[in-house]
């Protein structure tokens, strides 16, 4: 029977992928983690294995006998390219071990996003997969719904929240939705190559977000559009550290230029399920 491995299995998304897989398949599951002891006792039918993307020897042992792999992108972001090196090591080792298919958790518009500094590692990892001989499912996940709540946290006592996202919409996803997509993609037997956009059912603009929040929270919200520079000034005046303010305004500006959408039906086609409604 086909053996499926999940990298980062002790992390938040990894555990969600595991639970989703256990609900849809009886295939043997191998749990790859730098902290496999954290997974001990989950189930006698699961096999935790030590795997460190910075230790190739551990990857070789961890992927022995694995046929399909969920490669959850690491959090090792930095200017030295460490995340790409980690991903390349995992992909190269998987190929050498005989893995036939990799499901990679990428980011929406990885190779064309206005937020290229955020997506560059994903674009490079996608290129590594495309230049290899292995089958793959690249899942380009949209922004988590956490971002929507963060926008609303900017609201003052009158419910006004400032932003620099213009008319840009965001097709927010939940972590569970991304986990379900990965679980279906790695267990459905697809053996070719595909790139799927995992998004919410529609790209939600700031006025639409305000209306959704009003309905769900019973409080009036009103978006106030400002320039990127003005947003930084407002945040710094509100005691947000300058570097953090600049980063948040940069994300807003990227959304204004289309980084958050459009919405796709790929999730529904893959899973047979409708994307969840944005919960605020």
From TrEMBL:
Pfam families: NAD_binding_10 (PF13460). Residues 8-183 form the NAD(P)-binding domain. It comes from the Bacteria. Gene3D superfamilies: NAD(P)-binding Rossmann-like Domain, UDP-galactose 4-epimerase, domain 1. InterPro entries: NAD(P)-bd_dom, NAD(P)-bd_dom_sf, NmrA-type_oxidoreductase. SUPFAM superfamilies: NAD(P)-binding Rossmann-fold domains (SSF51735). This is NAD(P)-binding domain-containing protein. It comes from Devosia epidermidihirudinis. The lineage of its organism: Bacteria, Pseudomonadati, Pseudomonadota, Alphaproteobacteria, Hyphomicrobiales.
């Amino acid at each position: 029977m086909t053996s499926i491995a999940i990298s980062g299995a002790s992390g938040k998304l990894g555990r969600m992928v595991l639970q989703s897989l256990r609900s849809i398949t009886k295939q043997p599951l191998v749990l790859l983690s730098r902290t496999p002891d954290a997974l001990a006792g989950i189930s006698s039918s699961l096999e935790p294995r030590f795997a460190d993307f910075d230790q190739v020897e551990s990857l070789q042992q961890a992927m022995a006998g694995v046929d399909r792999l969920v490669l959850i992108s690491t959090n090792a972001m930095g200017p030295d390219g460490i995340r790409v090196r980690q991903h390349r090591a995992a992909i190269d080792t998987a190929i050498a071990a005989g893995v036939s298919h990799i499901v990679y958790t990428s980011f929406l518009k990885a190779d064309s996003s206005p937020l290229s500094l955020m997506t560059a590692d994903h674009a490079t990892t996608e290129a590594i997969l495309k230049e290899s001989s292995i089958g793959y499912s690249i899942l380009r996940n949209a922004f988590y719904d956490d971002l929507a709540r963060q926008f609303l946290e900017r609201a003052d006592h009158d419910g006004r929240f400032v932003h620099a996202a213009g008319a840009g919409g965001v097709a927010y996803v939940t972590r569970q939705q991304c986990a379900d997509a990965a679980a279906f993609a790695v267990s459905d037997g697809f053996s070719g190559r595909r790139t799927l956009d995992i998004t919410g059912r529609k790209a939600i603009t700031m006025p639409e977000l305000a209306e959704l929040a009003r309905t769900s929270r019973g409080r009036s919200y009103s978006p106030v559009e400002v320039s990127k520079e003005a947003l930084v000034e407002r945040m710094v005046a509100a005691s947000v550290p300058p570097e953090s303010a600049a980063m948040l305004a940069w994300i807003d500006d990227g959304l204004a230029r289309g980084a958050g959408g459009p919405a796709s039906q790929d999730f529904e086609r893959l899973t047979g399920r409708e994307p969840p409604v944005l919960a605020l």
